[in-house]
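In this supplementary section we document a worked example of the pipeline. Step one takes a protein sequence of length 200 as its only input; no multiple sequence alignment statistics are reported here. Step two produces a three-dimensional model, which step three serialises into structure tokens for compact storage. The input and output of this example are shown verbatim.
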Amino acid sequence: ESGDLRVSLTDGTVLEASTVVVGIGAVPNDGWLKSSGLVIDDGLVCDEYCRAVTSENVYAVGDVSRWFHRGRGGDVRMEHWTNAVDQAACVAHNITHSHDLRSYEPVEYVWSDQYDWKIQVAGRTTGLGDHVIVGDPLKDNRFAALYTEGEQQLSGAAIVNWPRALIECRRALLAGSNLESLQKKLEALTNPPNIVGTPP
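The serialised model returned by step three reads:
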């Protein structure tokens, strides 16, 4: 609406905002591969070792790679340079150690600096489960949004200006922790105990 930012949710709720960040995604540049005989479907389709499914001598890295992620039980494609770097290390190992192949199963991670906000996202934040906010975005500009899939299983987190929370979230995702345990840990970080002799 003119002069105001409002977000209308599917349940009819209207949220007022001073800033809105829109992520629209990207389309992989895979047109040049269409006549290669390789399987192309929203990127070059690969197995869990990042090899093209129709050719064990072809590997893919980065935005164009759509590989089978065993931890997620399906194909994924990640659009961030941190993934390309990590995936390249896995592919280099698999090319040079064909007798000891490693599956590529990263915890997704992206980040962006937007003025005085450092936004970091780990895992998947697009699930159909619940989400909770830890911290007060209006009070100190530092908070974490935690996301679930299914029965309170932690699936991802979006973190603003809180590096320690990112460390805890990535650990929790790697360990397969549930939402409640991570939420309690982060809430303890927002309200640390006051030790006698130290300022509050």
